[in-house]
Each structure stands twice: as C-alpha cells, then as structure tokens.
Design a protein that fits this description.
heterodimer, A: about 170 residues, alpha+beta, Glutaredoxin, 2 domains, four-stranded mixed β-sheet, 7 helices, elongated, B: about 550 residues, alpha/beta, Rossmann fold, Ubiquitin-like (UB roll), 4 domains, five-stranded mixed β-sheet, 13 strands, disordered C terminus
Chain lengths: ~170, ~550
C-alpha cells in the first residue's frame, strides 16, 4: 500500500473493486495509469469525472496528467456509448474499397457525426483507424462483432434493425 | 528444461498426433472468425466424433488467404478448402479417406507458389494456444540451445551474421542493436516487443501474434539472454482483442513449461513478460513514444539521442524490436546464420511478411524471400487486379510510405530498392490500387491520417500536416491554384526536415511520391478542375464535356 491516504471508492458499485484490483496488481505505481484506465473503460464503458479523479488520487498522478492521458488516446471515451455501436474501419484497405461511402451513408442516415450517439442513446457511430482485418475490407464492427466485405445495403439494414428494436 | 526433456515433449505430442489418421485444421484468425469459423469448428468437431473416424479437429492461426475464408486444411493430404460453411461439415468429414469435396476446394497453387514461410512456418499448422504443439515443431529448441550452449556474445554474433534487419520498417541491423544494448551500462535492462501495428492496411503482427505467439515469446527470451535483460513487455494494440487473448494464454503456458520465470532451463537466467495494451495512438509505434506509453504517460516521442538502447524505459537500456523481428530469431539460431543469410538480396536478408490488400484478387498474408519483384507478388501470388480493372499503383509503408506506379513493378523488393523509388518497406502493408483510385485523394487520405494522429508536440508536424491537408482538400475540391501546389511542395520540405519524430518526418512521403509519379493528376485537378478517377468532390463529369467540345 502506498504511504499517502487512499481515496474512498466513488460508490459501492462492485466494479470499483475491479479497478482497485488492477492498481493493486501494479503496486499503485504511477505507470499503472493507462492499465487502470483500460480497466475502467472496459468495466464502465467510459470514463467519467469521478473515475478520473479516483484513479488520479489513488495513483498519485496529477489530475491534469490523468486527464491529458485520457484525452490523448482514442481508445478512451468520456461519454457513454449508445446501446448499439457501429464502428466503421477507415484504414487504407477499407478506404480503397469504399469505406468513405459507408461512413457518408451512416452519417446521413443516423444524422450524427462519427464519435456521436443518436439523441435517443440507441446507436453510436464510430470510426476505427484499422482493425487489421484488411483481407476482408471494407470492414465494420457491429457491437464489436467484425463483419467483412460490407455492402452499403447490408449496413443500412443492420442500422434499421437496431433503430426499430430499441 | 533440458533439450532431452524438450524432445520428450515433442515426441509425446507427435505420438498423440499419430493416433489420428486425419487432422482437420480450421483457421481461427480474425479474418476467418468474422466468417463464423468458430461455429464451423464446433460443427466439424461434432461430426468428427459422430463419424467414428480417427480424426482430430484443431483450431489454428491464419492460413494466409483471408479472401477465401473460412479456410480448412486437411492433413496429411494437404487438401485446402475455402469458404466452408458449417452446413458443409458432414460432407467434409465424410470425405476423409475418400476423394476430396471438389466444390469446396480452394485452388491456390499460384498463391502459395513462390512463398517461403519462415515467420509463418507454424501458422495454420498448430493450435496457437498450446505450447506443446509449438514444441512439437522444434519450438524452444533455439532458446534451450542459446542458454545451454552459447554465450550471449555468440548469440548476438549469430544474429549479426544472419543479416537480419528490423522488420518494423526502419531496417536497422538487429545484431547491431542487440550489441549496443548488451554493451550499455545498467543493472536493469528491458526488452520490448513493438506490436503497436498502427499502419492502416497492415496486419502481419496481428497474424503472427494470433497464429504463433510462442515464437515471439521465444524470440524475446533469446534477446533478453543476449542483452542481459530480465523483464520484457509486449505492447499490443487494444484493437486486436484476439491477439491479446492468445498472447495472455501463451504467456501462462510458457510459464507453466518453465520457459519464462526464474532459472529457465536450469540456468541462472530469469526473464518474464508482461502485456501492455495500446490505447489507440498511431504515434506509439515510434519507440520513444511507446516507452512513454508503457510508463503510463501520453505517447509523445522525445528527441534521440539518447537512443532507447542506452536510455529507454525508466532510463534503463532497452531493446525494442518489432513482432516480426522477434519471430525470426528462433529459426536463425536453430538453422544457423548462414542459412538465413543465404535467403534474400545482398543487403536485405531473409523473408518479409506482407499484407496484400486493396484491389487485388487474393487478399491476405504472404511471406516472400527478399528480392522478389513487385510484379511477381501482385500478379503472381496476388492474382492481379480483379473485375478487369487496370493496375494503377501499389502503396507500401503506410502513411510514411509512397505509391509505386506500374513502371517500377519489376523492382526487386528490398529496403534500399523501395526507398530508391520514393517509398519504404514499412511494416509490410501493401495496398494495390486500380484506376478507380485518385492519387491526389489517396495523398489527402494519408495526410488526414497524419494530421489526426500527430501528437502535437512539435510544430512542423502539428501545424504542417493540417496546412498540407487543407491544401490537398483544396486541390481535391478543384479550388486550388498553382501557387497552392508550390506551397504544398515547400511545406513537404519543411515538415520532412524539421519534425521531431518519424511520423512528421515521413508524413509528406505520400504527397511527394504521388507528385513524382502522378503529377498529371494534380495538374488535372488544378487546371481543369476535374478528377480523372471521379473520386474527388470536383467530379469528372463537367470536364469530360469540356474535353469533348475541345
């Protein structure tokens, strides 16, 4: 345990114990910051103010530095994602095979930009730098599930299905 | 673990395999998994059990040809099936011992002809989560040999003699790097495996980590022994969940078999590896940025020297190599430096794994000896451009590389040759473009990438990429003048020469290489406000009429 006083868990949500576990495993060293943020992101789905404050206090990392790290990396999100997520890969292979058209269609259909969630909190539209499945380009992730050789029509179908079953 | 014990494990694994008449290998790489190869495997396992045939269904890593997935390889007949659906399982199992199912067969003689598998020698043949299968194919023999028969200096000498160069793109001689870290002063040293494959359009490292993770672990352990390190990190992208899972399982397995931990092979040598997840920043592929990220900081590079070999992770001497570089180590020690140096060209030895993607018939992973021509790769192995389209350019090196036009297709692939035509080896992404791609738009695409991925530390990169992106957008929209083009060329020069790290220094490359070979397209956008390929916002229609009337 570190010499400085530890902050109390933000709530009695059990997931904080998982977060604490990650920090303990790394001996509460400052270098555990990114690993801990990964745990928060995967357990809560996003990083809110409370989470960043809690982690920064626990690891004795200045809040500004913790916030800097959170906003530097694309993987960390400050807002909760929608019920469904459609992630369009914008890697080079996907771009050559027309991912920009997929993105344009999805943007128009959902009336949101990439990185945003529909007002009803149902669908989030994301872009990925490259998911490394270039052999199947263009690729999208439907709720994290990889779908290859996507055609505009099949993506639109999926988005419509999500929109209906909310 | 001694070499005798290793042999024992290998023998018992192989005896286990001999109980079966047939082995049905199902590809469980990311590409095939996206086509439900997990369900297919279940169906095959069920059918195999019901059939009463002595056959073993196994999950394997990537077999290469993602375009024809899910792939199934039946051994010992070496029959390869492509696009297999789970409903095909009964027929497939029934055919064992009979003539193969013709309608499912993948005829890929062209694809495999000319390839030479060293890094990928186990991919598609072993279960990546089982260390014993790796040992059954000579795995860990090199580590045991190094620890029990060789001095660290001898290991480094072998690697130097092999002529292996960094596979991450820079091409720095691996032996030289190892020697520097070995000589560096410091009680604690680190070995880092760079698996932050941020290059869009490249997936070699993902495939190696998914298909044969033990090979990378063995390479790292040998490196640690050679340079005197006791702690290693594998930095993998969080976007590769399957690779992370397989690696986690493999590290556990390696510890169980005593290949990691204290007193490895009964010697004083101790080494262990931890995984660090990337968090989505392309710049973290740069070694100093990667080190900052492992330290829990923002992934921003710092000026070199001091190089990580002298002062790296937490100020300690650190060896950083790419996944593919580590994957080459064990075969070199096992088969000898001379064997490895016999493959490839004069200055670029060995093989290189490429990810062939884009407008090409056989998309997938290929491993070729250095010195093969681009034409052989694209039109031989790759099967050429589909849909009767015309080849236009091939892009290598990702956002740091360039586009190579048809006139240079007979170029023999090597680090030097690719640089001489204005591109670079990079990590091995190879994206083929046909005449439906606009080269100005491609340059704009890469510039957008560099602009958004710039870490913001140095001004030339942060501001320069944004300015260049705006200029390229202007050209694409048909609103640019020749003055804009001159400014763009000027900016390329400034950003290239004044940026802090590789990201900025190479960001202008896509622009420079397209300007070198496809300047007429830029001029067409500026002069006639039209995009010959019809991709850009300025369109191709209006100007076509002008042409007709003219």
């Amino acid at each position: 345990m570190p010499a400085y006083p530890m902050p109390a868990l933000p709530s009695d949500d059990k997931r904080w114990k998982i977060v604490n576990g990650t920090m303990r495993r790394h001996g509460y060293t400052r270098s555990a910051l990114i690993e801990t943020l990964h745990t928060v992101q995967s357990s809560f789905g996003f990083l809110d103010d409370d989470a960043i404050r809690f982690v920064s206090k626990s690891l004795h990392v200045p809040l500004s530095q913790a916030y800097g790290v959170v906003t530097f990396y694309n993987h960390f999100s400050l807002k909760p994602a929608g019920k469904h997520t459609c992630t369009i890969c914008t890697g080079t292979a996907c771009y050559i095979k027309g991912a920009d058209k997929l993105l344009a269609t999805a943007t128009k259909m959902l009336k949101i930009k990439s990185g945003e969630t529909t007002p009803d909190g149902n669908i989030s539209l994301m872009t990925a730098r490259c998911v490394g499945a270039c052999g199947r380009a263009p690729v999208i992730l439907e709720d994290g599930e990889l779908v290859g050789l996507v055609e505009t029509a099949t993506m639109v179908d999926q988005l419509e299905r999500w929109a209906l079953h909310d | 673990m001694t070499s005798e014990e290793l042999l024992q494990i290998a023998e018992s694994v192989n005896a286990e395999h001999e109980k079966f008449d047939y082995e049905v290998n199902v590809c469980m790489g990311t590409g095939c998994m996206s086509q439900h190869s997990a369900k297919l495997r279940e169906a095959l396992t069920k059918e195999a059990a019901a059939s009463g045939k002595r056959c073993h269904v196994r999950q394997t890593g990537c077999m290469g040809l993602c375009a024809a997935g899910p792939l199934v390889l039946v051994e010992p007949t070496e029959t390869l099936y492509g696009s297999v659906h789970e409903s095909d399982a009964p027929e497939l199992i029934l055919s064992l011992g009979e003539p193969p199912v013709e309608r499912l067969r993948a005829h890929l003689e062209d694809y495999f002809h000319g390839q030479q598998h060293i890094v990928l020698e186990n991919s598609g043949h072993i279960d990546p989560e089982k260390i014993d299968e790796y040992i059954g194919r000579d795995g860990y023999a090199a580590l045991v040999k190094a620890l029990t028969e060789m001095t660290p200096q001898a290991v480094i000498e072998q690697i130097s003699k092999s002529g292996l160069r960094g596979r991450g793109g820079g091409g720095y001689p691996t032996g030289l790097k190892w020697g520097t870290v070995a000589k560096a002063f410091g009680a604690q040293k680190y070995v880092i495996c760079n698996g932050d494959e941020g290059d869009p359009g490249a997936f070699m490292d993902r495939s190696v980590l998914e298909s044969d993770p033990q090979r990378v672990i063995e390479g790292m352990a040998i490196a640690a022994y050679a340079v005197g390190a006791s702690k290693g990190y594998v930095y993998v992208r969080a976007e590769y969940p399957l690779a992370v899972n397989r690696l986690t399982v493999s590290l556990r397995e390696a510890r169980r078999r005593g290949m990691l931990g204290n007193n490895i092979c009964g010697t004083q040598f101790a080494f262990d590896i931890e995984i660090r997840l990337g968090a989505g920043a392309f710049v973290c592929g740069e070694e100093t940025a990667l080190i900052a990220s492992i330290e829990g900081l923002r992934g921003q590079p710092r000026p070199r020297p001091p190089y990580p070999a002298v002062s790296g992770l937490w100020g300690a001497p650190t060896l950083i190599n790419n996944v593919e570089t580590f994957a080459n180590i064990a075969p070199i020690l096992r088969k000898g430096a001379e064997w490895y140096a016999g493959i490839g060209t004069e200055k670029s030895k060995g093989t290189k794994v490429f990810a062939l993607t884009g407008k090409i018939t056989n998309t997938g992973l290929v491993e070729i000896p250095m010195g093969m021509t681009l034409r052989e790769m694209i039109f031989g192995i790759g099967g050429g451009v589909p849909d009767g389209r015309k080849f236009k350019a091939v892009q290598t090196g990702g956002p740091s590389g360039g586009c190579i036009p048809e006139e240079h297709l007979d170029l023999a692939v090597s680090y030097e040759a690719l640089i001489s035509v204005g591109s670079m080896m990079g990590s091995g992404g190879m994206i083929v473009m046909d005449d439906t791609s606009c080269m100005v738009n491609v340059a704009r695409f890469f510039m957008e990438f560099c602009m958004t991925e710039s870490c913001g530390k140095c001004i030339p990169c942060r501001v320069g990429t944004a300015q260049m992106f705006d200029l390229l957008t202007k050209i694409c929209d048909g609103k640019a003048s020749y003055a804009d083009l001159d400014l763009l060329i000027d900016l390329c020069d400034v950003v290239k020469n004044t940026s802090l790290c590789g990201l900025g220094m190479t960001a202008p490359n896509p622009v420079l290489s397209t300007l070198r070979y496809f300047k007429h397209e830029y001029i067409e956008h500026i002069e006639n406000k039209r995009c010959p390929a019809g991709v850009c916002a300025c369109g191709s229609g209006v100007a076509t009429e002008v042409e007709v009337t003219a």
